[in-house]
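for the recovery benchmark. tokens below, seq after
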């Protein structure tokens, strides 16, 4: 077994047929990382008769004194089932990276560990995961742990919606009651989803925090350029005239209902206390809704004055790869979150993915903590509401190449766990 350098075409031809294929392990993503300021190369792993049995995109970051850190995002693409093969791979990889003045290497193979339900309980487990984990550890890799949040370069958990062999109506019915309500609410409020054929990114950054705009803008620009016709931008556009009309109708209907309840209470003569209390509870709920709808009408009127035609509430970027559509990023106007534009965008993408016969819609990261006290509960709740399947991956591993300089780096670096994503230019 030995490591060789291969070109982009050789790499893509191997990677697209591998069992652990993913869009991070493509030359398109390599171009994104290169444009973001990292050094990039493609390696092939060949057996004794020069047959390609593994490959990986590797990105490098120079840190000090000509030394670097290397990372294989969602790689290396290799069969980890056999202990001696993994040990041999690790040995030649260390020698290869040592010549590159690399002090340590990390990887997070796209290997599914478990499939879970909405409560976080494992419903299916990769029967080879313990063997694979043991082989990688025995070879000398340090396991970074079963992290539940965002400690690694990429999340250990993703939310994946199954589309294959499912009717679109059945997919919709499988959503939580809350998710269906928000999809309908957004559509009835006058929000329309538009796919931007010109892929204009400038509007997107109205929804970003100021201190992140520069890095995000560059990253998204490179994603759009490098994945070309496999990338898309969607915008949620609110028709402010429709929003006013809808808000007025809802308010007036609730006003009528509220008046009727008031009259019923005033004329109520029955001695049935339970029935009376039920009527009072209905009036209290109607009062609450009336106040809510009144505020919405005031907001709608104000938005119409500020934006006589329409206003963009949110945006999403996707990548198409293999049999899936991946949600790369999405942003929404925080002060108008209650209009649920994010739910309508995702529903639109689901419909498009289904119409184009994609098997999965990958909604990207979620966390491995499933109780409501979890600080990322809203993130999980949103994606689980669409019926997404929580998918847990094996996690991140680290291989020390140069022990002395590794300890030196760890001693003076403020970032003990360096992340490439934080250094995007």
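predicted aa per position
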């Amino acid at each position: 077994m030995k490591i060789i350098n291969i070109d982009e075409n050789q790499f893509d031809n191997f990677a697209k047929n591998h069992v652990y294929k993913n869009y991070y392990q493509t030359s398109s993503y390599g171009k994104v990382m290169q444009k973001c300021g990292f050094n990039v190369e493609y390696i092939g792993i060949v057996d004794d008769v020069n047959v390609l049995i593994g490959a990986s995109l590797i990105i490098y970051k120079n840190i000090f004194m000509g030394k670097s850190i290397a990372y294989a995002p969602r790689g290396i693409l290799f069969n980890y089932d056999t202990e001696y093969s993994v040990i041999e791979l690790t040995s030649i990889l260390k020698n290869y990276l040592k010549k590159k003045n690399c002090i340590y290497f990390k990887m997070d193979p796209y290997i599914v560990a478990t499939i879970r339900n909405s409560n976080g309980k494992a419903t299916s487990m990769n029967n080879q995961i313990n063997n694979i984990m043991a082989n990688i550890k025995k070879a000398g890799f340090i396991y970074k742990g079963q992290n539940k949040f965002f400690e690694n370069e990429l999340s250990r958990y993703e939310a994946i919606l199954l589309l294959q062999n499912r009717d679109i109506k059945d997919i919709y019915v499988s959503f939580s009651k809350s998710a269906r309500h928000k999809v309908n609410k957004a559509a009835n409020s006058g929000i329309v989803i538009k796919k931007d054929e010109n892929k204009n990114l400038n509007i997107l950054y109205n929804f970003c925090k100021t201190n992140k705009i520069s890095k995000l803008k560059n990253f998204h620009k490179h994603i759009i350029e490098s994945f070309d016709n496999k990338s898309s931008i969607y915008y949620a556009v609110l028709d402010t005239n429709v929003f006013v009309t809808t808000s007025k109708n809802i308010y007036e209907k609730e006003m009528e209902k509220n008046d009727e309840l008031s009259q019923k209470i005033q004329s109520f003569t029955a001695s049935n206390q339970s029935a009376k209390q039920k009527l009072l509870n209905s009036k209290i709920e109607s009062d609450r809704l009336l106040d809510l709808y009144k505020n919405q009408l005031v907001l709608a009127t104000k938005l119409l004055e500020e934006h006589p035609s329409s206003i963009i509430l949110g945006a999403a970027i996707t990548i198409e790869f293999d049999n899936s559509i991946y949600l790369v990023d999405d942003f929404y106007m925080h002060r108008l979150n209650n209009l649920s534009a994010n739910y309508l965008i995702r529903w639109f993408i689901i419909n498009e993915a289904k119409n184009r016969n994609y098997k999965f819609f990958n909604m990207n990261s979620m966390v491995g903590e499933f109780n409501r006290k979890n600080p990322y509960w809203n993130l999980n709740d949103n994606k689980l509401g669409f019926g997404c399947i929580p998918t847990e991956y094996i996690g991140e591993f680290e291989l020390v190449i140069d022990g002395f300089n590794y300890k030196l780096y760890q001693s003076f670096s403020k970032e003990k766990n360096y992340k490439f994503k934080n250094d995007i230019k």
